[in-house]
Amino acid sequence: MWCSRDLLFQHIPKTAGVSVINYLSAAMPGPHYLYEWHKLEDGVYVPDELKAGDRHPTLGVSFSFAKAMGFTDIKRVFCIFRNPYATEVSMYHYIREKLQDDPRSYSALAKSGDFTNYIKHNTHWPSYEYFLRIGGELYDNMMIFQLEVDFPDNIKRLVKSLGGNTDMEFPYLNTTVHEPYETYYTAETEEIVYKKYQWVFDRHYYERMVL
In whole angstroms, what is the distance from residue 124 CA to residue 107 CA? Predict the structure, then answer.
């Protein structure tokens, strides 16, 4: 997650978070802080102070961190959703390309090169609503942007409304290159992903894939 005095960005995995953090760090007035477990790479701007933590905490942890940094009156809280089928393919390739030395079991699943086996057995990454909880309850005032809808202009409008500088170009970082996500799925793996993200589908952020 990333926070400043007026804004908190809740970073859900593989939803353009590195690009958004890079943009916010340059566009929003400081100070700002990043709750991370390692330094970002690829030339990404590091905020004023890097705090040790988990790159993708629950929202309750994010608010606690922001409060500890002295931010007690945050005006806007937002996150980004992405088509879940695309998210799973992107995560699969990210692990294969950029986590070569990671010993965790889900990394071994991805590095085996079998997407079906990866989807069937990877239980490490939860659905989006996990990251929106405070003490087990969903946060009501979250601004949810969709990666496929008016992005990144929606981010720029939010920054402008809070007095940020929107002159800079939006960066596209930490991306993966692969075939269209639809080509990866069978009926079996589609159903697994649908059930995993059913909260997202039930609220009509995305439609279920038809094979």
Answer: 10
